[in-house]
């Protein structure tokens, strides 16, 4: 089992690229404490969970559990995996990256951050994410936005970063992701926003190379 924050070295031969993929798991303590409080208000003893058969516990308390989660009125995920894919060391000037199938080359940050369903609207979660990534934060050039661009998971501090912002969302999803507020905020800061849907024409491919050897390797 791989622990949170442990990098996986990616062997890219014969290129001189030193690439890693690092998964992080974040527990939203604020939401967890909120759920605990609501369950206790409804006389649900959490200590029983360890000694109970879960299907039976759920059957007995499902109304109170649903009420507790419904009270969040936002992204319900208590845990989320975030994945960093990028350079092992902070040496951005050794890298260039080509966007949109190699039509244009840009020198700079080439790491990608896949944020899953993490709720970055929480300042605690946002700062925890930056702390976990440490120096790798400065290597990011592309971010897959949290929870399909939902405003409940968005922190406007993201718009201050010089990144490309990729949002994945179905064209007919019932939650109407992405949020127009999120897109408006990103565009107001003159950021590049790309929306990837189920249509093949919306897909993105970034090719990474080094200034030293210019051998192209997929991100």
Number of individual domains: 2
Taking pLDDT < 50 over at least 5 consecutive residues as the criterion, the unreliable ranges are: none
Give the ordered list of helices and strands: EEHHEEEEHEEHEEE
The chain-level structural class is: alpha/beta
Give the proportion of residues in helices.
Answer: 10-25%
Beta-strand content: 25-35%
- In one word, what is the shape? globular
Strand order of the largest sheet: 1-2-3-6-7-8-9
Q: Tally the helices: what do you get?
A: 4
What number is the mean pLDDT? 83
Please describe the biggest sheet, giving its number of strands, its sense, and whether it closes into a barrel.
7 strands, mixed
Provide the gyration radius in Å: 20 Å
Question: What is the terminal separation in angstroms?
Answer: 24 Å
Query: How many strand units?
Result: 11
Indicate the topology:
Blueprint: E1 8-10, E2 19-27, H1 29-41, H2 54-70, E3 79-87, E4 95-99, E5 104-107, E6 111-114, H3 123-133, E7 140-144, E8 164-168, H4 180-188, E9 192-196, E10 207-210, E11 217-218
Parallel strand pairs: 6-7, 7-8, 8-9
Antiparallel strand pairs: 1-2, 2-3, 3-6, 4-5, 4-10, 10-11
Helix pairs in contact: 1-2
């Amino acid at each position: 089992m791989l622990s949170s924050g442990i990098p996986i070295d990616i062997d890219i031969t014969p290129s001189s690229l030193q690439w890693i993929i690092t998964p992080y798991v974040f527990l939203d303590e604020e939401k967890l404490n909120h759920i605990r409080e609501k369950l206790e208000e409804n006389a649900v003893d959490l200590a029983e969970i360890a000694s109970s058969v879960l299907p039976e516990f759920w059957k007995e308390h499902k109304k109170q559990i649903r009420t507790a989660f419904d009270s969040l009125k936002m992204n319900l995920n208590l845990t989320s995996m975030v994945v960093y894919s990028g350079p092992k060391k902070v040496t951005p000037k050794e890298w260039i990256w080509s966007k949109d199938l190699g039509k244009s080359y840009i020198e700079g940050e080439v790491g990608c951050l896949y944020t899953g369903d993490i709720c970055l609207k929480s300042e605690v979660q946002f700062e925890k994410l930056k702390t976990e990534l440490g120096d790798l934060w400065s290597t990011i050039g592309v971010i897959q936005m949290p929870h399909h661009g939902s405003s409940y998971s968005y922190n406007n501090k993201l718009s201050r970063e010089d990144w490309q912002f990729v949002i994945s969302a179905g064209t007919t999803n019932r939650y109407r992701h992405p949020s127009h507020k999120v897109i408006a905020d990103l565009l107001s800061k003159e950021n590049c926003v790309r929306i990837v849907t189920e249509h093949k024409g919306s897909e993105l491919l970034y090719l990474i190379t080094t200034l030293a050897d210019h051998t192209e390797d997929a991100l």
